[in-house]
Amino acid sequence: MADQMKVPEIKRQISLMSLGAVMPEINVSKLKRLCVEVPSLELQRHFATILESVERQKARHREHLDTLFASLQQRAFKGKL
Predict the structure, then answer these.
(1) What is the pLDDT of residue 14?
(2) Lower CB count within 10 Å: N or C terminus of the chain?
(3) What is the DSSP-derived secondary structure letter of residue 32?
């Protein structure tokens, strides 16, 4: 959550780089000057582990929902609802 608070700072940096046009002129050299904090490798790996776990859970839930839906369909077509 604390990292989200840094987004306004990044926007401010980009705004200061723009030339005041309707479409700010941002090029690679300007973007390379941006100061963006990168989480530690340990924190990135921790996040990746959590994300993988969530994705596995989502896959299991999808499988269960597919099974339940198939069962419900079968009962509906047999008139057992």
Answers:
(1) 78
(2) N
(3) H
- Reading phi first (left if > 0) and then psi (alpha if -120 to 50, else beta), residue 79 is in left
Task: Return the structure tokens found at 67.
Answer: 């099974």
CB 18 within 8 A of CB 26: yes
Q: Which amino acid, residue 80?
A: K
Given a contact cutoff of 8 angstroms between Cβ atoms, the answer to whether 61 and 53 are in contact is no
Q: Per-residue pLDDT tens for 5-58?
A: 577 888 888 777 766 555 567 777 877 888 888 899 999 999 999 999 999 999
What lies within 8 Å, CB to CB, of 65 at 6+ separation is: none
Q: How confident is the model at residue 63 (pLDDT cuts 50, 70, 90)?
A: very high
Q: Are 25 and 16 in contact (CB under 8 A)?
A: no
Q: What is the mean pLDDT of residues 53-70?
A: 97
